[in-house]
Amino acid sequence: MKKTVLVTGGAGYIGSHTAVELVGAGYGVVIADNLSNSDAGAVEGVRRITGVEVPFERIDCNDGAAMNALFTRHAVDAVIHFAAFKAVGESVAEPLKYYSNNVGSFVTLLGSMRTAGVENVVFSSSATVYGQPGTLPATERTPRQPATSPYGATKQICEDILRDAVSACNGLHGIALRYFNPIGAHPSALIGELPRGVPANLVPFITQTAAGIRGELSIFGDDYPTPDGTALRDYIDVVDLARAHVVAVERMLYGAQREPYEVFNIGTGRPVSVMELVKGFERANGVKVPCRVVGRRPGDVEAVWADTTLAATILGWRSDRPLDETLRTAWAWQLSLKD
Ligand code: NAD
Ligand code: UD1
User: Fold this and answer.
1) Protein residue whose Cα sits closest to atom 20 of ligand 2
2) Is 151 a known active-site residue?
3) Which 3 state secondary structure label does DSSP give 178?
4) pLDDT block averages, 10 residues each, the chain of length 339
């Protein structure tokens, strides 16, 4: 029988792409989102791409009664928990908002899952848990560094909560996926990232600058000890990232998971500098991105990229979309927002 996956935060950037891939892989999907950082249009986008009337529940995951009721309305086999706030700067200014929403919603979700007897959960973690790793690439065994923001702290805390909940509760399976830098959009340009206000992340800032919404891109530092002096990251295509969730769910539901709690890096394994990304975007799309080098951004690390061996060998997953294709989807999405 068709298995059903609850996707919390499924109207958001990564959740909507994951919902599409899950439907494509034959799963039933329920989206739960309070639309605090998204728009119901993303759910429509998922429905248009898949041709399936994916159910949408407008729910705050902190609301335990509403979550319990949701699990009685839908027979859920696994949950992917994307719902969280993610703005690093805002988390420094409003830490309680972040601890309350990100940690609170996960605890509430795990409680409702227990009540409902749902035993499989994938958690959205982040490469931010590594800080600046002492050795690169970062493997899953690379020690986590003390968090440099409340946002980063919530990812570490939620990983620990999941580990502890799994060890206390016979039958519960958890997988934490540590995403590196998700970029790009669905090739249909029907769903993508919707930054609110001035984007903090690099690719949305590039696409808005190319579109003339921003005057120029500030490149934060060209004096890092890297080949061209700009910082190195591991930019992962959002559809490839979405596929990683499908294989993680597959692993939990079909019995291949050996340890009840597992952690995987989800990246490409390929370091790309800020300058390379900007030039690559210009080349891929035939557009100019006015830019200027400014000082380093406080809190930034100089270089982080993934060792992807574990995801490749255990999950059988790897990213295969070339960077220029991903950068074309990012631009197509930006252009679609003008219509
Ligand atoms: P997003 O903001 O686009 O999506 C998150 C969704 O969760 C939004 O639709 C929002 O409305 C919803 N939401 C937030 N709090 C909620 C609550 N209490 N109840 C119900 N819905 C709620 O963000 P995203 O980029 O898709 O990120 C998804 C997850 O991946 C987050 O947990 C984020 O921290 C994590 N992550 C993202 C990145 C990235 O660069 N985008 C990197 C690493 C990890
Ligand atoms: C940031 C967050 C990280 C989060 C990730 C989500 C910080 C310190 N870290 O990571 O916790 O998980 O987003 O994607 O905020 N850059 C510019 N100009 C810009 C924007 C960015 O030069 O206008 C540079 C940055 O200095 C960095 C690179 O581009 O070197 C990538 O930046 P960004 O997209 O913000 O991601 P991270 O800093 O890796």
Assistant:
1) 202
2) yes
3) strand
4) 95 98 98 97 98 98 98 98 96 97 98 98 98 96 96 98 94 97 98 93 98 97 98 98 98 89 98 98 98 96 98 97 98 91
